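To: structure desk
From: M.T.
Subject: fold request, one chain
Message: Could you run this one when you get a chance? Sequence is below, nothing fancy, just the single chain.
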Amino acid sequence: MDIKLNFIEQGQGQPMILLHGNGENCNYFEHQIPCFSKNYHVIAIDTRGHGQSPRGEMPFTIKQFAEDLHDYMDEKGIEKAILLGFSDGGNIALTFALKYPERVDKMIVDGANLFPSGVKPLYQWPIELGYRIAKLFSKKSEQAKRNAEMLGLMVNEPHIESSELDRLTMPVLVVAGTKDMIKESHTRLIYKSLPNAQLAILEGDHFVAAKNPNAFNLVVTEFLRK
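Reply: Done. Structure tokens follow.
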């Protein structure tokens, strides 16, 4: 790996890796870390170019973030982990699990999508507009270039075929909010495509883990206990 990922960790026991969403950092999980670290060794990572993790020279893609996670686990001697990913973090978790299924014990994907059209147009259109504007100014401004890269993740990625998901036999909890920016039909497609999945639609929007943490933490805890 060309960079060192920033991370925070708490607790002991089985490793549980938390993966935040686009443009965020590991602090997104401030309500999850104290809860899950009672029973697990919780590690919340800053994705490449997010939080305090450097951007590095490698491509800024979901696939690269999955490789970064693989390198991180190798470096830390983590054979197998529970993955909890929110939004782009969920997309990273799915991408990682498809390539390295033997490294994933259980998985929680919250507000994930398989391809850009899984996002409701109401949310996707402003993202696409912002991306075009940022791209326009990206040669003149370093900030615009960075914005274009961030927004580009949501405009151009991910690319996962629902048919690929039947290879993932580990237990998976699929979570979304009742008012999520991801289409409910898309969330249900992910759930139905996974052979060993549970579905939880919780009261709230896309940021249900942050805004409705009690309900989120409870459903995750129950899933992990089984």
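Reply (cont.): The radius of gyration is 17 Å. Let me know if you need anything else for the meeting.
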